[in-house]
Amino acid sequence: MFQRTAATGEDAWTPSSGIVPSSIEKDTQLEDSEDSDIEPESSVINIKRKRENFTNANTYKKAKKVGGAQKLSHQIDRLCEAVERRSSNKNDTLGPSITQAIEELDAIPDIDPLGQIYMFATRLFLDKDKRELFVALKHKEVKVAWLMNEKNVQEEKENSLFTKLF
Fold first, then answer.
1. Where is the composition biased (Acidic residues) (predicted)?
2. What average pLDDT does range 127-136 have in this prediction?
3. Quick check: 117 and 111 in contact, CB under 8 A?
4. Nearest CA to 141 among 103, 111, 96, 97?
5. Which residues, at least 6 apart from 18, have a Cβ–Cβ distance to it below 8 Å?
6. pLDDT band at 162 (very low <50, low <70, confident <90, very high)
7. How far is 18 from 48, CA to CA, in rounded Å?
8. What secondary structure letter does DSSP report for 17?
9. What is the mean pLDDT of the chain?
């Protein structure tokens, strides 16, 4: 509403100037004498106090910004630590790799590397849980029996799906 409005002339005054023009001071004295016993200097003192409060508020905001920057820096540090912990925990809980499972598979003399069971096992090891179970089995005979069982279960699923379609 008052965007392009400016006070000019003898009675122009802004609180930031800190000096009350004599005409306003006289008006203030008249009003003050009617309302109360406030001295004219008190309005100047009030203006100075307001200015000091404004300056203190700005100083507080600047100090708060510095505190905010420190807080942000601290939060970034915490975030980096959390990511590092998560990645180190992830490496601990990943379980055996596909390479480890294939090495265990190669160590079984009964399984031909060009045979169906071997090829089936390589696809099976894409499933983390099944790969982990295979590596956890201690005896080679049990590993072969487990692979054969998994192959039979998958073939039964495929056959039942085929019969449902037709």
1. 30-40
2. 94
3. yes
4. 111
5. 44, 47, 48, 51
6. confident
7. 6
8. G
9. 76
What are the DSSP calls for 2-16, one per residue?
-TT----STT---GG
Which tokens belong to 125?
A: 């090891």
pLDDT exceeds 60 at position 76:
yes
Please, is 11 exposed, middle or buried when counting C-beta atoms within 10 Å of its C-beta (0-12, 13-18, 19+)? exposed
Q: How far, in Å, are 11, 47, 90, 137, 158 from residue 70 at the CA level?
A: 47, 35, 30, 52, 61
In angstroms, rounded to a whole number, what is the distance separating the alpha carbons of residues 145 and 152? 11
The Cα–Cα gap between 87 and 98 comes to: 19
Q: Which amino acid is at 63?
A: A
| Every domain of the chain and the residues it spans | 16-93, 98-156
Q: Which amino acid is at 165?
A: L
pTM comes to: 0.43
Q: From start to end of 1-133, where are the E strands?
A: none
Cα 72 from Cα 45, distance rounded (Å): 40
DSSP 26: H
7-16, 59-68, 82-91, 102-111: which range is least confident on average? 59-68
* CA–CA separation, 119 and 141 (whole Å): 18
